[in-house]
Design goal:
The complex is a heterodimer of chains A (273) and B (168). In chain A, 30% of the residues lie in helices and 30% in strands. Chain A is α+β, with helices and mostly antiparallel strands. The longest helix of chain A is centred in the N-terminal third of the chain and has 46 residues. Classes of the chains: A alpha+beta (273), B mainly alpha (168). Chains A and B meet through helix 2, helix 3 and strand 2 of A and helix 1, helix 3, helix 4 and helix 6 of B.
């Protein structure tokens, strides 16, 4: 017994080093798999609070930019609204069925945003108290941003689409050929769409939108424009470079989407994980 | 002694806040960020027990990681530096370190720069290797280490000059 203690005391520096190095490597590897890194995330009370405080100051400098974006979005929505009014006068809804749609939208503000690393996360100033939970989609008026992966009481962490672990279903706007949206970690304005079948009619400049297979995003949320494409080595699938509509380096305010029927669909499909 | 503890605690907090609120948002040319918080590891008193130093470094890195959502990469890099710092000190300052008489502000510029460079580059290499966790990106790791390292060293030298201890 004495010898064991002597050994421990003599080698305490080495042991402490190995212990702490092991712990940090464990945390690193854990953070590379989804939904695991629970405590070491920027959505906790202290880090979220500090980011929120610093963001309150920064927001003032971008007010004009945000206003401009809101005006643009309002213009688009108003354009849609005038078209809808014509048809709604003809169709008369009289039964009690809800026409709310299955998606709920909530707003939030980005208080921290990374884009220079290969695994990037965004922190939002809304959390469980605002009914945000895991696997809610996050978009702006211009395009998609990411998926919520951690929530605390007042803050939420989002896996940005600029994260090499993120994989989102996306498709061509004009046909329904779909693939997976990934990021190679290089340019924060360019993402990749892989596994698009060779038959798909692809042209440079075509729009890519979210696909209907995802339970997180509604179909047709814009993502970006095709900049370049090539066939993979087996010559059966396209790999497409997409320039994002969103400026991921300057996001500001976002919408959080909740699919109210996700649980029901999941249950039906028998997806357990 | 108490004076040194308080100044180290203040340095710990200020460097973390400065790092996460300001420096992490620089993203010069898209990927170059200075990691000034390494300054804490460089300035930490040389004659204190090493086990405490390793522990403090771990918490420094872990705090930065919590802010950055990066798992434990900064913590690992800091612990490595804390573990090998005595070797780096002996390598850079030679005999005077063994007699515990060395003070960073009293050394010549050349040896000081050497000491800082070794620490910064080892730290950055560990940091970026762990961030990528993929040796097919070795070129990107090297590039990031080199450019971010130069940026960090410049900032460290500037802050050392700005906050030089008063000569009595």
């Amino acid at each position: 017994m004495q010898q064991i203690f002597n050994f421990l005391i003599r080698n305490r520096i080495n042991i402490l080093f190995l212990l702490l190095l092991g712990l940090s490597l464990f945390l690193t590897i854990q953070s590379n798999s989804f939904h695991k890194s629970k405590y070491i995330s920027s959505a906790n009370f202290i880090t979220g609070g500090i980011y929120n405080w610093s963001n309150n100051i920064q927001t003032y400098f971008y007010l004009e930019d945000y206003n401009q974006r809101l005006l643009e979005e309002n213009k688009e929505l108003r354009k849609l609204l005038t078209n809808i009014e014509d048809t709604s006068a003809v169709i008369n809804f009289e039964d009690s069925t809800s026409f709310d749609g299955i998606y709920l939208f909530r707003t939030a503000k980005v208080i921290n945003n990374n884009y220079s690393r290969t695994a990037n996360y965004i922190t939002l100033d809304r959390g469980r108290n605002s009914h945000i939970s895991k696997e809610h989609g996050v978009i702006t008026s211009q395009g998609i941003v990411g998926i919520v992966d951690q929530v605390s009481k007042n803050y939420a962490r989002v896996i940005s689409i600029l994260n090499s672990h993120s994989k989102i279903n996306a498709q061509l706007k004009k046909t329904n050929h779909f693939g997976s949206l990934i990021w190679d970690g290089k340019d924060p304005n360019v993402v990749q769409l892989i596994d698009v079948p060779r038959l798909a009619p692809i042209k440079i400049g075509d729009t890519i939108v979210t696909g209907g297979k995802s339970l997180i995003f509604p179909q047709g949320i814009p993502i970006g424009r095709i900049e370049e494409f090539k066939l993979d080595q087996a010559e059966s699938y396209f790999t497409i470079e997409i320039r994002l509509f969103n400026d991921m380096t300057n996001i500001g305010y976002v919408y959080i989407i909740e699919n109210k029927e996700k649980e029901e669909i999941k249950e039906l499909q028998g997806i357990d994980d | 002694m108490t004076n040194s503890i308080i100044s180290n605690i203040i340095r710990f907090i200020l460097l973390i806040l400065f790092q996460v609120l300001l420096l992490n948002n620089i993203n010069f040319l898209g990927y170059i960020n200075p990691y000034l918080y390494v300054l804490f590891l460089i300035l930490y008193p040389f004659n204190t027990p090493q086990s405490l130093f390793i522990l403090v470094s771990f918490f420094l890195g872990l705090t930065i990681d919590t802010f950055e959502d990066s798992g434990g990469i900064n913590a690992a890099a800091c612990v490595i530096i804390a573990y090998i710092r005595p070797m780096i000190l002996r390598f850079s300052f030679g005999v005077s370190y063994d007699y515990q008489t060395v003070k960073l502000s009293n050394t010549s510029f050349g040896t000081r720069l050497g000491y800082i460079m070794v620490i910064v580059f080892i730290h950055h290499l560990a940091l970026f290797s762990l961030e990528m966790l993929d040796f097919s990106h070795i070129l990107l790791i090297m590039k990031k280490t080199f450019f971010s390292g130069i940026f960090t060293i410049l900032l460290i030298l500037i802050s050392l000059t700005l906050f030089k201890p008063k000569r009595r």
